[in-house]
Amino acid sequence: MDDMTRAWTAVKPQNATSIGCDPFLELMAASGDVGQVQILDSPELPPSPPASPSCPPLSPRLLPLAPCAATNSPQAKAKRAPRRLERKAMHKEQASCMRCSAPLAMLLLHGPEAALVEPHQMSMTCMACSKATAGAADAPKPSGSGLRKKKRALGVDGPLSCSACARQVGVGGMRVVNNADVAGRKRGWVEPMFEIEPVCLACWDKYKFCSACGGGGLYRTGRWRPQELFDTNRRNCNLSHDRLGATRFDFEVMRCPDEIPPEFATVASDFLCDQNLKTFAVPKLMETLSGLSVLPELDDRRALHARELKVFLTSPPQPSRTRFACAAWAAATASKPRQLAGFFAIEHIHNAATVRLAFGIQIPKTSIMRSTATLHLLRAAVAHASKDIPPIAHLVIGYPKHTPTDPAEKSLSPGPGFPLNRSLFHPIAEYEAAASLDPEVVDPARIFHPKVAPLIDMFAVSFTTLVDAFERDEEPARVKFFR
Predict the structure, then answer these.
(1) Which of 25, 272, 424, 432 is spaced 20 to 30 Å from 50 by Cα?
(2) According to the lineage, what is the superkingdom (predicted)?
(3) Is-above-0.85 flag for pTM?
C-alpha cells in the first residue's frame, strides 16, 4: 500500500456513512441523513456448553487397538512406505486440419509423463471443413444398395474451443493408439489418460499464461494475460498478485463532492486504473469488447476513466442531480491495514427519475459485494431525495459493445464482466419503458467521452424489477427501506 493510501486510511470524513459488511445483520436508518446511519456489530455466537460428565470427550482413536507386539518384532520396526505421487507434466503440440491441412491451434497436453509419451493422434477439422462436411451429410442421397455408408473419422468427437478466448477453433478429439490386437484389428483406439487444452494460434502469439494471477482455470490455476505484461524470461506477469485473504468488508457511502476528501479521490482513481487492467486484460474480454483488443487501447481507456472519476468525485453536479460513492474496505488485520477492495458510484438524475450506475470495480469477483454496494447507494439516493423529486423509476448503465463468441448469442446482450445481474438489464432498444427515458440519460454521446461514446451500449432496468430481484434472492428486510 502506498503512502497516499495509508494517509487516507487514517482520514475518515465525519459526515460519511460507515455501514457494516453484513447487510443481513444490520439496521439501516431511514432518517434521510446518511451520516446518521448507525453501525451495529454482528451478534456473537453463544459459548459452547461444557461437556457433560456422562459424555466423556471423544478419543482421537476411533477403534480399540490390538495388544502391542514386542518392540523388537519386524512389524514394529517396519515403516509405512511413502506415497508415490505422480506429478503432471505438460507437452505442446500443434494441430492442423485433417482435410485442408491449415494450422489451427496449439495443443497443451496435461497429464502423467507416462501417458503423454504413449502414441496418440489428434483428429481435428477446421470450422469451414466441418460446415462443408455437415452440409454434404445433410444433402439428400440417392437410394440403392450399391452405396456404402461412409465411416466416421476416428477421434472426431465434438467442438473444441480456445482455452484463452473461448472461440471455437474446430471439431475433433484425441485418441491414443493401442498396439495390441483388438477384435482382430492391427491397432485399436482408446481414450487418452491426459487432458487436452486447445489454444488458437492468434491467442498463442498474443497472450501468455500467468499462474500467479489465480482463478480457477479448467486445466490449471491462472489466467491468460497480454505478452506485454511479462518481462523477458519471466513466467509470471507484472501485475500485483497480492491476496485479500479471509476478511470482512465495511461499506462506506459518501455524497459527492461534499463528503469526499481529496485523498480519497486519488486513492479511488489509482484503484480504478489498477483494477481495470486486472479485470479487462484477459482474452475473453479483450477479444469480445469493442475498443479493447490490444493493450495500448486498454491503457488509454483506463487512464481516461481515472480522469473522469476524479471529476465525478470532486466537481459539483448539476442542480438537478446528486452523486454518491460507496467504498468497500477490507477490514484491517494484525498484519495488514485496511485497504480499498471495491468502489462503486451512481448519479441520480431527478427530473428523469433515473439513476445511472457510473462506476463499479472490485477485487473479489463476487456478486454479493456488487449487489450490496448498489443497495446501499440506492438507499442513500432515496434518503436524500426531497418530496418534490419524482421517485426513482429506471436504472441505466453503459457497457462496452460486445461481440459474442457464440454465434447463437445475441450481439446486444451484455458481455462477460457485466457489473450486475445481466439477466435483469435490457438494451435500450428492447427496454419496455424506453419511450419514457430522457435522451440525456441514455445517449452515450451526452454521457461519455467522444472517443468512447461510439463503443458503448446502454442498458436499462426498471427500479421495481431490481427491487423485486433483491426481495426474491435476499431477506425481505433488506428492501423494506424501498417500500
Answers:
(1) 25
(2) Eukaryota
(3) no
